[in-house]
Amino acid sequence: MALSDDFVEQSCGGSRSSLFPYFPIRSLFCASIGGNIGKSDEEVEFGSLKYFLLCGVGGVISCGTTHTSIVPLDLVKCRIQVNPEKYKGIIQGFRTTVREEGFRALGKGWAPTLVGYSLQGLGKFGFYEMFKIFYSDVLGEELSYQWRTSLYLAASASAEFFADILLAPMEATKVRVQTSPGAPPTLRGCAPMIYRNEGMTGFYKGLPPLWMRQIPYTMMKFACFERTLEALYRYVVPKPRSECTKQEQLVITFVAGYIAGVFCAIVSHPADTIVSKLNQDTGSSASAIARKLGFMGLWKGLFPRIIMIGTLTALQWFIYDSVKVYFKLPRPPPPEMPLSLRKKLEAAGKS
Q: Which of 34, 143, 151, 196 has the most CB atoms at less than 10 Å from its CB?
């Protein structure tokens, strides 16, 4: 049943979301800037289908390019995880790989990385923006502000669930190319081999541990980024966001992204190790690999992954925000307490 017009009119001037017509629109973000985050003369309308599609394009560009650019580091990291006796560290891992296979080997897996993480970026960022608005509309303006961290966590987890379904086949192919001796070294050679030998199961058997790795990672990536960005503007940046140039805002985005990336790497690393090992040992299960590796074994390769994911996350947020600027997408500032909630707290003597 649709909500009453009076209820809708209390949210952002009475407009309804074109995507979610039965919920009040943009509650959390209306609180940020007085309800005025609709369409300006040049901007794409916030919450429109075009807005979500362009956010998805931003995700494709940010995730596809950044993950592909660090394939050599990712290759060494995966080899440390699956064969720590041979690959004992970053420098030694690079040396061993180049000595045995040549410099070209450092690019192994670039094609499935580009395809897979572009698709993942489409789902990750596009669905995040969608779920963030959806959950905010469900909660309403005041609860969206009070529970904003939970809102970020829920929206990012929901988005990553679907994004990983897009990523899983290419992730399985990438790890097989990078870590399995004798595997075809290209996407067009390895993917058909997996399908012939294992069917679709070969592409998706790593999906549950991929969810275990990526969903906590993405929850930390988005929630930590959003709250870090909010804290930077509140406590560190010496002037309001509205007075910062777009270039200054992008630098702050990069810093917040790097901080978030460090935490992302830590919370998702054990599952990342299991995914790498699972795609190498075709007959193993995630639980069997975890028991075999033990607690310390699950943390092999953490340092290179912190470097990789910290840089990766910072660049992704920087590129994503730059794409938003380029396409003139609305970029709401960090949320502020709604006036109605402020009045309630003042009346209760809590503010």
A: 151
